[in-house]
Amino acid sequence: MATSSSLFRSKKLSLFLNLSFLLLLALYLKTNLFPSNLNSTLFHLSSNIRPPTTTISHHRLLSDITTNGCTDLQKYTDNKYKCFYVKTHFSCRPKGYIDYLQIFYCNFGQFPILGHFVLLLWLLVLFYLLGNTAANYFCSSLESLSKILKLSPTIAGVTLLSLGNGAPDVFASIVSFTRSGNGDLGLNSVLGGAFFVSSIVVGIISIVITSHRISVDKCSFIRDALFFLFSLFSLLLIVAIGKINLWGAICFTSIYLVYVCVVSAMHFFCGDKDNGVGHVGEAGIPLLGYIDDEKPVLKSGLEEQEQIANFLNLNPEICYYVAKIVHVLELPLYLPRRLTIPVVSEESWSKPYAVLSVTLAPLLLAALANTQRENVSLRSSLVTYFTAGLIGMVFGNLACVTTKKSSPPKRCLFPWLAGGFLMSVTWTYIIAEELVSLLVSLGHIIGINPSVLGLTVLAWGNSLGDLIANIAMAINGGADGAQIAISGCYAGPMFNVLMGLGLSLVFSSFSEYPSSFEIPGDPSLYETLGFLMACVLWALVILPKKNMRLDKSLGYGLLTIYFCFLFLRLARAFGLLNLYGSSFEV
Questions:
Q1: Its domain of life (predicted)?
Q2: Whole-angstrom Cα distance, residue 497 to residue 256?
């Protein structure tokens, strides 16, 4: 019954998000295929509408458009002027694929509550897609690759599996630096996620298992905490200097390679099993703990029908049609990824899907390549698509000839797994790009800096899986589970800081080479790094004094540090507190 209940909850979440996606898609198509006559009205504002004295004139509006950025959007109170502003100002155009500001002000200007609801619903769908893609496609490809490459558990834990768990943070950071031009968002999202995991998650774990009197391994904890502190101190120096060149960015990223070598050396020479299990234990945990593996229609239909029938007390005939309807409703979010990401696992194998995925994957890569380039000619775009189509047809024919309908391929698995890894990375990048674009637009709509949304909404959303999985592991896994959970709470954020921000700095400084890349000048970064380092230092001081035993003093201290920081940051963002001599503007 527990399995049926879990399946039913998963189905309800999937159905809700798929129906939400269909609703949002219908609204988007309606507003674009049947636009209102608002555009013609806007261009005659000065002649047809006499602005009140409290409204900024049309001439002033055009002047602001030519001299200021999108930050002046909040100066206007009339939605028609705001719509005209976002339509004519290049800086207000998103770096993603959807113009959220235009949709909000031009289509929902008279109904702002409905506009907020639509954007928040789409935010929820994007978070689901990001976590679900990482859990069901990205992580499974990495786990299979680690087996094919015969990596030791320790090496796999601190490299491929850490990448799988930190994929959303890493790609969101890279997108914010390279595509959105808003490095503040990337810095704050990674640091916010690291702060949340190392304070809230560790704090709750310490409080809920106090009565169990569980201790963690001292050497492993001190190693991870000291490396994490060194990483944060290095980032603090980079922010203080204000710029970094290519070689400096490479050195910052290579700190994680040193950490991998130290972990491997300790595991090899000391033979401490905790060094390995502390990272491998997370391998089987989905990024979002409440998202079950997606099950293909062809393989698990009968089993799911039986479980749903038992749970809902339906007769088999009615349940058959219910299951068919459920499968159809789940397709909008499932099918596009399934048709472009090769999957060769035993439980999810389907030859039609496999052939179609390797055929369509090059076309998706071509579409992404065309959108990443500026001023692409039609001829160049068509050549890219034509080349991708030819490559896809070759791959599709090879897959059709070399695979069986009954089982996945047993030989030459590496190309399949590498292709699955590449396409899951592609989808994660696309979703992260759209998520960052939406958060930047929400920052403009609400009137606060998008970096605050990165520090809170994006960080919390990407860390939700760590919260659920690590707490469940600590409660149900005994001493080993608590060790795994605590190790993951420090090794995971360290990977995100060093690889997520490190790779972002490498790409950004490479684009500026031989000049240096200018670090976003956000004075609140010092505050974030200071509180985060205080959080790690608190754990380093309290745990040894308590003989490495997790208790309430550690937990309540970490929660206090986090909520004090959060209060200060949000109070300044909403204008209730001014520490830097000027209001915190967008």
A1: Eukaryota
A2: 9
- CA–CA dist 289, 469 (Å, integer): 6
Q: What does the pLDDT look like over 412-453, one tens digit per residue?
A: 888 898 898 889 888 888 887 888 788 888 888 887 777 777
Q: Of residues 486 and 30, which shows the higher confidence score?
A: 486
* Distance, CA of 49 to CA of 378 (rounded, Å): 41
Which residues sit opposite 244 in a β-bridge? 517
- What was the pLDDT predicted at 293? 38
Going by C-alpha positions, the residue among 219, 250, 202 that lies closest to residue 504 is 250
How high does pLDDT run on average in the chain? 76
Q: Which residues are CB-neighbours of 182 under 8 A, at least 6 positions away?
A: 176, 436, 440, 450, 451, 520
How many Å apart are CA 95 and CA 437, to the nearest integer?
A: 6
Question: Hey, is 450 helix, strand or coil?
Answer: helix
517: helix, strand or coil:
strand
* Strand blocks (E) in 176-247: 243-244
As a whole number, mean pLDDT of residues 4-25 equals 72
Element (H, E) at 301: helix 297-312
d(CA 500, CA 190): 7
> Which tokens belong to 256?
């994680």
Above 60 in pLDDT, residue 205? Answer: yes
pLDDT of res. 364: 92
Q: Which residues contact 87 (CB under 8 A, 6 or more apart)?
A: 39, 42, 102, 106
18 contacts 330 by C-beta, under 8 angstroms: yes
Average pLDDT over residues 73-83: 75
Whether 537 and 229 have beta carbons less than 8 Å apart is answered as yes
Amino acid, res. 389: G
Q: What is the dihedral of CA 223, 224, 226, 231, to 10 degrees?
A: 140
Residue appearing with tokens 């005659």: 44
Query: Cβ contacts of residue 503 below 8 Å, gap of 6+?
Result: 170, 173, 174, 253
Half-sphere exposure of 391 (CA within 13 A, CB side): 15
Cα–Cα distance measured from residue 535 to residue 195, given in angstroms and rounded to the nearest whole number: 8
Task: Report the amino acid identity of residue 326.
Answer: V
Amino acid 127: pLDDT = 83
pLDDT of amino acid 578 = 64
Residue 562: pLDDT over 50: yes
> CA–CA separation, 330 vs 266, rounded Å?
46
**Closest to 243 in 3D by CA, of 517, 475, 451, 58:** 517
Give the orientation angle of helix 160-178 with respect to helix 139-148, to 10 degrees. Answer: 130
Burial 479-494 (b: 16+ CB within 10 A, else e): bebbbbbbbbbbbbbb
Q: What is the mean pLDDT of residues 225-250?
A: 91
User: Does pLDDT of 251 surpass 90?
Assistant: yes
How far apart CA 577 and CA 570 sit, in angstroms, is: 9
Q: How far is CA 341 from CA 400, 418, 492, in A?
A: 16, 10, 26
Helix (H, G, I), strand (E, B) or coil at 518: strand
> What's the distance, Cα to Cα, between the start and end of the chain in Å?
50
DSSP reduced 3-state for 448: coil
